[in-house]
Amino acid sequence: xxxxxxxxxxxxxxxxxxxxxxxxxxxxxxxxxxxxxxxxxxxxxxxxxxxxxxxxxxxxxxxxxxxxxxxxxxxxxxxxxxxxxxxxxxxxxxxxxxxxxxxxxxxxxxxxxxxxxxxxxxxxxxxxxxxxxxxxxxxxxxxxxxxxxxxxxxxxxxxxxxxxxxxxxxxxxx
Length: 174
Known about the structure:
- The protein has about 170 residues and is mostly beta strands.
- It has a single domain (about 5-165), classed as PEBP-like (Phosphatidylethanolamine-binding Protein, Alpha-Beta Complex), CATH 3.90.280.
- It is built from three helices and nine strands, in the order H-H-E-E-E-E-E-E-E-E-H-E.
- The chain has helices at about 5-10, 15, 145-150; strands at about 25-30, 35, 40, 50-55, 65-70, 85-95, 100-105, 115-125, 155-165.
- The strands form two sheets. It has a six-stranded mixed sheet with strand order 3-9-8-5-6-7, with no helix packed on it. A three-stranded antiparallel sheet has the order 2-1-4, with no helix packed on it.
- A hairpin with a 2-residue loop joins strand 1 and strand 2.
- The chain is globular.
- Mean pLDDT is about 90; it is low at about 170-174.
- Belongs to the phosphatidylethanolamine-binding protein family.
- One of its GO terms (cellular component) is cytoplasm.
- This is Protein FLOWERINGUS T 1-like.
- It is found in: Cytoplasm.
């Protein structure tokens, strides 16, 4: 992590995708035993399967919405599909994870083709259980507009990782 700042600010997650917020709940994202730390790098092969997500809190009557987006689609130099929605789960009870919520948009494996992409997990606290409709398409999603539409307020947690296309050297990995 570069010294001197919040990784979400250093990585321009705050600004590009989110407004400044105060973390108030723990959010752990784990791919194959590896905990995602903001700014870390994961290869596309490491994120093919849906991650395990652990949400903190202490009141199981509190519900959360988890959003996973890529603000760098299709390429960081021309992100004209910003934000690409990779996953959307609502009604996740505190102290559990997405398996206990309602999956609105199923997990799609990130497969960046050009450049380094930021894949961002954002957690919102819901005011209560609510009906959330799947967007008509994954591209040009707006986390801010979504939060406003469903009265979610500012995030309570976020974490991101960098991902780029697997290089062709060294043979094909399966």
